[in-house]
Amino acid sequence: MTCIMIDKKFIYKLGKWLLIIILLSFVAGTMSAIFLTSLDLATNFRTKHPYILYLLPLGGLAIGLIYHYAGKSVERGNNLVFDTIHNPKDIIPFRMAPLVLIGTVATHFFGGSAGREGTALQMSAAAADQFHKIFHLSKQERIVLLIAGLSAGFASVFGTPIAGAIFGIEVLLLGKIPYKSVIPALATAFLAAYVTSLWGVGHTHYHIDSIPRLSLTGIAYSAIAGVFFSIAAVIFVKLTHQLSLIFKNIKYAPMRPFAGGLLVIAIVSLLGTYKYLGLGIPTIVESFLQSSKPQDFALKILLTAVTLGAGFKGGEVTPLFFIGATLGSALSFWLPLPVGLLAGMGFAAVFAGAAKTPLACCAMAMELFGISCGIYVVVACVVAYLISGAHSIYNASENKAPKHFLFGKFSLTDVHRRRQIKTS
Questions:
Q1: CB count, 10 Å around CB of 29?
Q2: Is this model's pTM higher than 0.85 or not?
Q3: In the predicted model, what is the mean pLDDT of residues 340-363?
C-alpha cells in the first residue's frame, strides 16, 4: 500500500512538472517570437529612416516616465529576478514582461545601442513565476521554476538550447549547481527554442571558414586573445556602472534616458555613422568575413554603456557579441589565426568574461559555429573568465567568480563576490 501511495505521488509530481514545462516553454517561446519580430520591425524602420535617432531623447523620456509611474517594482530587471531566486519572497509582477518588451523595442526603434537577452530573461522569468501559486510550488520548486524560465528565455531568443540550459544555472549558482533544475532547464530550453521556430522566427547564422589544426602555438595565441577579451569585458562592465552612477545624479529618473539620448546623438554626430546603434548584427556577421577596424569594439562599448547606463531598456549580451567579434576580428592583424575563428572566439569570450558564464559561452559557440572550434573557444573563454575577475554585468548573481591579480586581489578561496543590488 505504501508503494502504491509513493507511486501515485511520483506520478502526480511528474505530471505536474511536465505540464509546467510544456506551458512555460510555449509561453516563453511565443513571447520571444513576438519580441524578436517586433525588434526586427523596429530595426528595419530605423535603418530605413535614420533620422529617427533625433527623437531618441523623447523616446528615453517616455520609457523613463513609464517605469517611474508604472514600473518601479520591476525596474531592477535581471537583478530582481536573480535576487528572487536567491531569496524567494514576493512573486515577480507580470507587468515586468510587457514593460521590458515595450521599453526594449522603443530603445531599438529610436536608435539606442542595446541587446535583447535581458528582455527575454525578464519576460520568461516573470511568466514562469506566475505558475508558482497556481501549482502550489514549494520554495525549492519555485527556484527550479525560475531557473527553467531563464533557460527558456535565453534559448528561445538566441536559438541555442544547450547554452540556454547551462546559462540558466551557471549565471546564478556556479559551483553549487541545483541538480534538480537540470532536467527542467534542459527541457524548457529545447522546447521554448522549438516553439519560437514554430512561429517562423529565425536566428542569425554565423560561419567560421577556416579552423587550423590544433597546436601548442595556436593554443598560446588563443590565450593571448583571451587576455584582450577579458580587458574589453572589464572596460564594458566598469564603464557602464560608472555612467549609471553619473546619470543617477539626475534626481528625476525619467530625465536620465532623456539626457542619455542627447549624449548618444552627440557621439553619433561626431562619428558620422549609425554603425554602432541597435544590435549591430550586420557588423557582427561582417567581422567573421574580414578584419574589423580597431576602433569598432571600443565605440560599441561607449555607445552601449551610455545607452544602458542612462536607463534605456535592453540587454548587454548582443552588444558583447559585437564587441568580442569585432575585437577578435581586429586582432587578426597581429595574431596569426583565421579572422573568422578570432571573431568567434571573441564573440563567446567577452560574454564569458562579462557574464561569468564560461560553460554556457563555450556551449553557445559550439552550437553556433560547430564543435571543431571548441578547444580554441574554450581556452579564450576560460582565460577571459579568469583574468576579468569578479566584474560582472549581473550584479545580483552569486557567481564563484575568481578575483585575479590584474583586476583585484588574487584569491582562489574568495569564491563569493559581494552582492550588489542596484537602486534607482
A1: 27
A2: yes
A3: 95
